[in-house]
Specification:
130 residues; mainly beta
Length: 130
């Protein structure tokens, strides 16, 4: 591991240690829930522009930085995909908000950051079920 790799790893650990909340990630395939995992995630936001028929729509996302190695469901490390969703939890484990994993403007629903030590999940707030 070179100096840049070590610095990227330290940066990822610092972000998650000091700027995170707990989320519950739900893996879904064809509307069937495959499993969940509670992980630390640093919340953020992003903006995408989509153009259609000369109109530009600006979409604001809620993004989550996670340790990609923590996203383990049924014994396997997974990657987020459209259809998955997550819930932000408060300190007592109660759901605060729910978000759908989203992909916009040809961008996949996640990006690797910090030399792969962080994963940025793109999501949109969704209406919470009663």
């Amino acid at each position: 591991m070179n100096k840049l790799d070590r610095a990227a790893k330290r940066l990822a650990k610092t972000v998650l240690k000091h700027g995170s909340v707990v989320i519950r990630f739900h893996q879904v395939d064809n509307e069937v829930e495959l499993g969940t995992v509670d992980i630390a995630a640093a919340p953020g936001d992003g903006t995408f522009e989509e153009e259609s028929d000369g109109l530009v729509q600006v979409i604001e996302t809620s993004d989550w930085l996670i340790d990609p190695q923590a996203l383990i469901i049924a014994g396997s490390v997974i990657v987020p995909s459209r259809g998955d969703w997550l819930a932000e939890l408060d300190s007592s484990g109660v759901v605060v908000e729910e978000y759908a994993v989203a992909a916009m403007a040809g961008v996949p629903p996640f990006e690797k950051l910090s030399r792969g030590y962080l994963l940025r999940i793109h999501s949109l707030r969704r209406k919470m079920s009663e």
